[in-house]
Amino acid sequence: MVLRSLVIALFVVGPLSMAGASEPAVDELAIFTTFRQEFVPITPGKGRFPAEFEMGRTDGDPSERPPHKVAVDHAFAIARYEVPQNLWQAVMGANPSRWKGPRNSVEMLSYDEAMEFCHKVSERLRACTLIGPGQTVRLPSEAEWEYAARAGTSTRYSFGDDLVDLDAHAWHKGNAAGNDPPVGAKRPNAWNLYDVHGYLWEWCADAWHESYDGAPRDGAAWTAGGDVGRRVLRGGSWKDPPSKLTSSFRRAAPRELKDDAVGLRCVLADAPTR
Predict the structure, then answer these.
(1) Which of the 8 DSSP states describes residue 103?
(2) Residue 190 belongs to domain with CATH number
(3) How many domains does one find in the chain?
(4) Is 57 within the bounds of a domain?
(5) What is the pTM of this model?
(6) In 53-141, alpha helices (H)
(7) Which of 95, 146, 150, 156 has its CA 20 to 30 A from that of 242?
(8) Structural domain harbouring 247
(9) Is residue 7 part of a domain?
């Protein structure tokens, strides 16, 4: 009888790991598996992925200048969607979002909480053998974010310059009221990434710099100098006008900011940004 009870307990809870922590529940494993499967490989210089792109815009906000060539010198994968609430809940144990929905993008999280999530989800994915021991989930560098958002384009938006097409691709001030549908309700860009324009601002790894003078040209996060108390947000949100949803628009935010228009999108790579 004791043995039978032990077998039942192991079936329900899962075997203990070497560190003494239990394996994820079946529903959590499904969430982690889905997250892993939704990463889109980005391979600069191969196939439809150019190795070099122009970052910034001459006629954009002063912080977008000077436009400069960036040659992304490493492959990485980026999440098809912003982090959904069910994934955040499974990793962090609570859901801070104002607008609730299991597959809605998680919001109301600071930069440091976004970093903590990346660290914890990396550990969980390794424990489930969904990523290798040398792989890590992290925030994108600002250059990686723009490279992925542009999807090979040089226009203001990944779909072109015509604002007539914005509603089909983005939740913004003109068509959203906060309680938006789950991720993926709008059209993706050419690399099948959703909500790169609008829905939520997305944290990047870079410290804030007022311009691109001295910016790295290899796609790495720009963490030297600048204002480390503020970080870069990209993509615009459901609260913002079209001018803030372009592929190149950037915003500074205190790292402790929590807002129902701020979330994150993750990168999976073999090593952190330099």
Answers:
(1) T
(2) 3.90.1580.10
(3) 1
(4) yes
(5) 0.89
(6) 85-92, 111-127
(7) 95
(8) 25-269
(9) no
